[in-house]
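S., here's the first fold you wanted:
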Amino acid sequence: MNYTYIMKCRDGSLYTGWTNDLERRVREHNAGKGAKYTKSRRPVVLAYFEEFATREEAMSREYAIKRLKRKDKLRLLESEDNPVKKRKAGVD
C-alpha cells in the first residue's frame, strides 16, 4: 500500500509527502531523518492520509495536495472522511 500524508508541524505548518510505510515515515520525520523541512519543526503529528494501490497514484495526489491553498488543506484535515480523525474517534 502507498500513502499520501499531511503532517502538522510544531509551528503549525503543514508538510505533505508520500510513502509506502506510514508508521515508519512518521518515526523518521520525528527522528529528524524525514525531510529537511520537518527537521527543524519537530515534533510532527500525522494529521491526514490517503491510501493508494500504486506509488504513481500516491505521488500524483501528493503533487495535487501541495498545490492546494492552506485553507483547502485544513479542510481535508477537518473532513469527516479523514482516517486520522476516525482513528481518534475510535471509528473504522
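And the second, which I think is the more interesting of the pair:
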Amino acid sequence: MDESDEEKQEGKETSGPGDAAASILPPLQVRAVLEALVFASPQPITAKEIARVLQGVPKEEWQSQLDALRADLARDERGLQLVEVAGGYQITTRPEYNDWVLELLDPKTPTRLSIQALETLAVIAYKQPVTLPEIIELRGVKSGGVVKTLLEKRLIRILGRKEVVGRPILYGTTKQFLLHFGLRDIGELPRIEEFAEVLGEEVDVAGLRRAIESPLAAPVALSEPEGTEGPAAADTPGTEPEE
C-alpha cells in the first residue's frame, strides 16, 4: 500500500458514521439560495421545506446563513425584513414603509378595518374560541355584520359549534390574522395596550381591556330542560364550519 492509499485508509478510520457531510454550496451561495426561496414562497416557508430543498446543506449551515440574512436585512435604510411568522419565514416590507406600498398597490380603495371591526377582532383573538352572543355580551354592541366582514377578509374562521342550547357558532383567528399582524402564533399576542398600538387606530383601549378581562357567562348545557335561557343562537347567516 503506497502513501496515498494509507492516507485514504486513515481518513476512513478517523471518520465516524455520525460526522455531518460537507455542504455542497459555499456559505454565501447558501444565503443567496435562502433569500430566493423565502422571497419566492407564496406562504411563509417552513424549516421542513427549507431542509427538503437544501438536502445537500447541513441544517446548522443553512440556519446560520438564515440568521445572517435576517441580520443583513435588519440594517438601517433597508426596505425589507426577514420575519418568522405563522410557523415559517417570510420577507416582508418594513412597517415604516407600509403607507408607500399601499399607495402603490391600491391607491383608491381603503384597506384599513373600521374601529368597530378592529375592536371585535381583538375580542375574538383574546377570548377565542368565542360565540357571537358572547362577543355581543363582552362588547355591549351588535357585532353580527362586523363578524361577517372579518370572515370575508379571512381574519377569523368558524371553529365549530358550542355544545350549549342553540349550539351557537364558535369563532377564532386564522393564519391570515397571524400574517396580517406579524405574529408567530397566538401565544405571541401582546398585552392589549400594546396590541392597540399595533392596530394603528384610535381603539377604545379601556373598553377592550374590560371586555377581555371579563369572564363569560356560564354556558347552559344541551342537557338542560327545554326553555332554559342560554346564550342567544343568532349567528352570521349562511356560514358553515371550515374544515
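Why I say that: Residues 6-19, 224-234, 236-243 have pLDDT under 50 and may be disordered. The first strand starts at residue 80 and ends at 85.

Talk tomorrow,
H.
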